[in-house]
Please model this.
Amino acid sequence: MWTEKYRPKRFADVRGQQDIVQRVKAFVEKKNMPHLMFAGPAGVGKTSLALVVARELFGDSWRENFLELNASDERGIDVIRNKVKDFARTRALGDVPFKIIYLDECDALTKEAQQALRRTMENYTQNCRFILGCNYSSKIIDPIQSRCAVFRFKPLEKEDLHKILDAIAKEEGLKIDPAAKEALIKVSEGDVRKLENLLQASATTDNHIKEETIYAMASAARPVDIQRILKLAYEVKFIDARNALLDTMLKDGLSGLDVIKQLQQELWHLDIPGRKKLELVTLCGEAEFRMTEGSDEFLQLEAFLAQVALAGSQ
Model:
């Protein structure tokens, strides 16, 4: 997979998190660091940076001194009592005085497991350092947070994503249209893992990557199609808007939740008064809530288009 092939191997390879990289690099250079917590959205480099830390600290023997667990799979107290403790109680190989345990998605750990983890972090601090990766640091109990230096990752900027795309295109011999690059960045929403997977899936069909291919692989409608639906509804051409919506959903194989999220994004580009935009965004939220609660998706979308048409008729 390209996500593994292009994973950063050195600090210089990590994109978009320069401030965090500099501070973590300072710990590594001194071969002494506290427990770390990497918090932030998916696909922004948390696991990559943890692996880079292990490589830089331990060199070729990093695999023997580094344990990676995904807490969303192994989230019970037994994992902390057995796997983590067994690894933590043995000394590190080499001249670094500690091993590293990386717990990914540790916000999925149960409260009991987090309490056990807190005690393990206390008891084995001489032999082991923990790096905790999570999407939401608020789900981690305070005693663990207070034992860690917390680093908050952010979604990558457009310039960083463009550099990543250009590097992959050069390495893989791809030609990516400018519109396709923008589509990749828009659909991935700063998630580099999603961006690379989409690009790899698109490259299986043709080395010339086009915008239509990206939206087809992402199971997303083109923004122009969503804008057309909204414009038809706002111009009180409700039947045309309804038919266009049905055609788009069937053609692109979209779920109602996919569509309502795209409708919300494209609402801001409509040439309508700001107050009406705010009202329609509120209605988007209500429709999305009803869908997640089990309501009929097309019925909710149809009701939302009716509200857009009513807003346009006033």
The domain at 2-152 is CATH 3.40.50.300 (Rossmann fold). The mean pLDDT is 86. The first strand starts at residue 35 and ends at 39. The chain has three domains: 2-152, 158-217, 223-313.
